[in-house]
Amino acid sequence: MVYTPTHGRKWWLLRNGRTLLCGGILLLVLLPVLCFYFMIVVSFSVFVWAALVILFTMDILWIKHASCYRTLYCMAEELRCTLEDFDPLRLIIKVRKGTGSYFILFHPYVSFYSMWIAMTRLGPVWNVPSRHYQVWTPLKGSYPATRDRYGFMEYVRPSGIGRLFPYILSAQKREIVFDEELMKRVPHLHDTARNISSLRFMGLAVEKKKTILLGLLTRFADSLQVSQTLEVLKKAADEIEHPPSER
Hints:
Helix content is 43%, strand content 18%. The chain is built from 7 helices and 6 strands. The mean pLDDT is 85.
């Protein structure tokens, strides 16, 4: 796999997710020792307690982010694509496969960005989706799309009582995974998409005022399923941008 560029702090984070994860776990193990030290040797004040709580919270976030870096790095390696960009805060990698560019976002239950999305966009805990992947590619031209990527979370959010346990449960698969627009334009691709076991939705969405073709997969998606999703996205995008009537 080719990295472009090959230097910079964000690339170091992506390549060393496993090392960061081990460091975070080690710090988590040492925190009780540190707590015991302050209780026995040092005066244990409210400020010390608050500092330990903050340290514990930051360490959990560190572990979660490191785990996501490792997941994305392994995914990119197994896809055998050219890695073009990486957003360490939003947990997005941009890859090039063939002539197309694709974005892969891993949305964990706990991270700086996912918590921000939960607070500003999704509301109560029962509206928070399970861990999942968002895969998309930009489309040339304007198409009927009004919702952004987080406007389709009902497709990856557990239903019923399961909405209270999004960390351990995932949404059930629906009979139709295409939105209405894709069913009109590329209905012959639906069976292929439906056979991708972790795919829950594919359709048009809005990203930074531009139309994208979006796929949502559960956290159980592996590199093969993501690769299959990229193939469906590529075929659908080609046919939407260049319909048979214009060829």
